Description:
Strand content: under 5%
Helix content: 55-70%
Keywords: Cell membrane, Membrane, Transmembrane, Transmembrane helix
Structural class: mainly alpha
Pfam family, one: AA_permease_2
Distance between the termini: 81 Å
Order of helices and strands: HHHHHHH
Shape: globular
Number of strands: 0
Protein name: Amino acid permease
Organism: Rubrobacter marinus
InterPro entries: AA/rel_permease1 (IPR002293), APC_superfamily (IPR050367)
Oligomer: single chain
Amino acid sequence: xxxxxxxxxxxxxxxxxxxxxxxxxxxxxxxxxxxxxxxxxxxxxxxxxxxxxxxxxxxxxxxxxxxxxxxxxxxxxxxxxxxxxxxxxxxxxxxxxxxxxxxxxxxxxxxxxxxxxxxxxxxxxxxxxxxxxxxxxxxxxxxxxxxxxxxxxxxxxxxxxxxxxxxxxxxxxxxxxxxxxxxxxxxxxxxxxxxxxxxxxxxxxxxxxxxxxxxxxxxxxxxxxxxxx
Length: 229
């Protein structure tokens, strides 16, 4: 009996191209996540939610080098620890955190779709569009549910089965933090919201000088602004 190759399985000659595409996608994903995290750390540091050192920008390149160094160093350290002591190899570590992050982002997409519908149906009824603010978010939510289902069912082997619980734990920690901050410093909640919406703003040299002045005041030093310390 002659066996025909399954057309759904790529031929061996395509393997290098598939590998290159996967590697390119992984690198692009890491760069995108890195840049987004750095911009957010910079914005939160600029507004005083996180240590102001994270808002430091390079004197010539005007890039938030402190936030970038912190994010890169933390990621490398986390990867080394989990690769050496938990999973035993970098590939499994990358796959674990990649799946965990993907599931979390997909859930965020669902919350965004629900928020769009609630916001325009309640607060912007004059601008409400059944197509843009109801049907499209509904279809997008249904589409997002498919990969979520594939990530959690059938229930994967440990520790991959912990993804939903880790995300739930992180969400609870965030809600508790938000509740405590809103009771003690309501102004900081508004600041955090502004930081999220302005995380993509370019670093401003004037902002850097302001941060230096505030740091000097806190240290009891001179308040003269300048471009070099």
